[in-house]
Amino acid sequence: MNIPLELVSVQTDDDLSRVRKAVSTCASSLSFDVMSRTRLVTAASELARNMLKYGGGGVVQIEKLRESSRVGLRATFEDQGPGMADTEKALTDGFSSGRGLGLGLGGARRLVDEFLLDSQPGRGTKVSIATWVRNR
Amino acid sequence: MDRIPIAKIGSCLFATIQVDMHDRLALALREDLGSELLRTQAKGVLLDITSLDTLDTFIARLLAGIGAMAQLLGARTVLVGMRPAVAMTLVELGLTLEGVQTALNVERGMALLEATR
Ligand SMILES: Nc1ncnc2c1ncn2[C@@H]1O[C@H](COP(=O)(O)OP(=O)(O)O)[C@@H](O)[C@H]1O
Ligand SMILES: [Mg+2]
After folding, report:
1. What structural domains and CATH numbers belong to chain A?
2. Which residue of B has its CA nearest to A53?
3. Nearest partner of A96 among A58, A127, A50, judged by Cα
4. Would strands A125-132 and A114-119 be described as parallel, antiparallel, or unpaired?
5. pLDDT tens digits, residue range B9-47?
6. Could you tell me the CATH number of the domain that includes residue B98?
7. B50-68, pLDDT tens digit by residue?
8. What ipTM was estimated for this complex?
9. B residues 3-22 closer than 8 Å to A (CB)
């Protein structure tokens, strides 16, 4: 069962702080450890920034994931921008079509448990990340 | 607009970064540090990031840029108080902060700047 927690619209730089804050608050409320929370917030910051820079802005949806034996957090970043022709290339470390470091997408993928990228030219971009709470 | 205050202590500039450093705040800090370095001829810059809870590639690159700029202006930059989770995440992102040194806390950062003057 997925429970919607927050919806954040990203249109300006200031909204990036809002995304970080929302993800951080949700992660804390689900008792994520500091390491997992920091990874999630950092990945979210990268993806929200891409959405703003390359996708012309978009929406972030944060959900609680609930399964019989575990709890997790998912954040989905959706924009109606130009999309990407080659997602593998976009995920390659060091590739940037702007003047970035090209570590955002690949880095975000390394920081979370689950990473889904769906994009096509002219159809916008959807990236979804999820991490599960570690059992202590 | 908000700005991060910069203090001069001895021959060093000192700034404390808040929990969440948004982009404009970071850009303003770089600009202010540049003009303060010129004005004060400071030999070191100490940035306290103890309360910073995330550092993404944009902000990390900006901090590295501050280090590079300070170097051109004859000053060294030390980042102090990076949280372990932030450090770990930077490594996982594949980032290296060239041009800046790090120290565990403010005292050690100060000692580092003083030792090499
Ligand atoms: N939401 C998006 N819409 C369109 N293109 C994107 C989007 N996100 C990423 N990209 C493309 O993927 C590339 C790599 O992204 P990233 O790894 O974050 O590096 P950077 O942001 O430094 O360019 C970007 O340069 C851009 O071409
Ligand atoms: Mg990016």
Report:
1. 2-132 (3.30.565.10)
2. B58
3. A50
4. antiparallel
5. 999 999 999 877 889 999 999 999 999 999 999 999 999
6. 3.30.750.24
7. 999 999 999 999 999 999 9
8. 0.92
9. 20, 22
